[in-house]
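Raw record, unedited: SnoaL-like domain-containing protein
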Amino acid sequence: MASNGHKKTYNVPAQDPERVHGNHINGTAEEILARQCIVELCKGWPVYRDFSEWHNFRSLFTRGSAYVWTAWSGPLPIDEFISACIQGRAHGDFIAHRETGTLANVNLNVGRGIGKMKATVTQRFTIQDIPVDIDCDCRFIFFCRLEDGDWKVQYARVFYEKDKVVPVDGKTVPEFPKDVLARYTSGYQYLAAAQHALGHEVLENLPDACNEGFFKMYDAMADWLEGKQVDLFWDKK
């Protein structure tokens, strides 16, 4: 006989979390073009960043005060983020992104847009002399605005939804200490533990599929589309 109790599972909330929708499909020619420009900005992350095309990558962002958040970097101004990426790559950090779907919302009345890119972050590690890939399914959120008539990214943050360890040889994986995994949410436990082992000061409690950060992100996305100021600096290392 099935239990009447309901065990809470880690999952995306069943109810729609988006309170401001903006224009997301169809619309005027101007709205369609704006959304396409924002989609191009989103797709520039994997295409340019993954292959060190730093000039092209920098061109995606506003000239000043643009910020990027990732698990390993925390919040950094875009130019500092690029410098950190260059340094990490020179020291062997091998990170790539598989984009799986991208759409955008716009509010032309305030010159604001939100880009949403589903992607898998995949990073190669050697842990306990065992080569593995750690794959993390994510949603990259790009807070975009018009700058001198061009769409640019002001802020980029990420939902870390779920991750896994992929054995390179198809069978061998390292052991991860449970106390280390427990520091992070279910969305990016293994990725965070492995990045921490490389010496990165990884942020804890980043937005995942249903935590407090999830709802803070959706509130910020709604405020951004309404033309309000947003504060995305809530994390602690």
